[in-house]
Design brief:
Blueprint (H helix, E strand, L loop, with lengths): L2 E7 L4 E7 L4 E5 L6 H13 L3 E6 L5 H4 L2 H8 L3 E3 L4 H10 L16 E2 L5 E4 L2 E7 L8 E5 L4 E3 L4 E2 L2 E2 L9 H12 L7 E3 L6 E2 H7 L5
Length: 213
């Protein structure tokens, strides 16, 4: 059974997720921890719960979701897993990080693990299914836990909103189509863990999201 722990980091108020099960193995998704006290909060939880970090996963590679990549990779000796179409997005962060005030941003080493739609990511006794949901970012993916009925959906779908599409590689219609095809195919009672803000459900967004009527 997967337990979800959410942290909110950096000035963008980005949600970082740590998933673990009864084996104590865990994965970190989209680490936004930039300041030392944010890194300490993440490490403190891992140590207090005696967890073993086995993978670093990325829904997409906009700056607010990758600020902690290098820290996590070096601290725990793990590799980064992303979609190949998001490699350019990741590489570009170094060129504009200072513009957003992240003067000490350090890029992580280039990933060698590329995730594809329909594959599964395993840790402990658990699995996450990968769905490709572009539109907010070219290589945006989400992680679905079917047994536990939730999805870590990054910046695709929010409570009453959707991800912005005015950034490089974004496309409004592509995002709408992706959400309807991939996320809205999930049962209504699935919890949606978002990259910013509170959780929602698939059913709630089908009924009430003004962008998807």
């Amino acid at each position: 059974m997967i337990t979800v722990k959410k942290f909110t980091f950096n000035p963008f108020q980005e949600n970082t997720y740590l998933l673990f099960d009864e084996t104590k193995e865990c994965v970190i998704i989209d680490p936004g921890c930039y300041e030392p006290h944010e890194q300490e909060e993440l490490v403190g939880f891992i140590e207090a719960n005696e967890l073993k970090v086995v993978k670093l996963l990325s829904t997409h590679s906009h700056i607010d979701h990758v600020l902690g990549n290098k820290f996590v990779m070096e601290k725990y000796g793990v590799d980064l897993y992303i979609h190949s179409k998001d490699l350019e997005t990741l590489t570009a962060v170094e060129t504009y990080a200072a513009t957003y005030g992240f003067m000490n941003y350090q890029p992580c080493k280039s990933p060698h693990n590329f995730l594809k739609e329909g594959e599964k990511v395993s840790f402990g006794s658990s699995q996450l299914e990968i769905k490709f949901v572009p539109g907010h970012a070219p290589g945006h993916i989400v992680f679905v836990a079917k047994d536990e009925k939730f999805v870590i959906n990054g910046d695709c779908l929010f409570h009453g909103s959707i991800g912005r599409t005015d950034l490089p590689g974004g496309d409004h219609q592509t995002l709408l189509d992706s959400i309807k095809r991939e996320l809205f195919a999930l049962p209504d009672d699935f919890v949606v863990y978002c990259g910013h803000g509170p959780e929602t459900t698939i059913g709630h967004e089908k009924q009430h999201n003004p962008f998807l009527k």
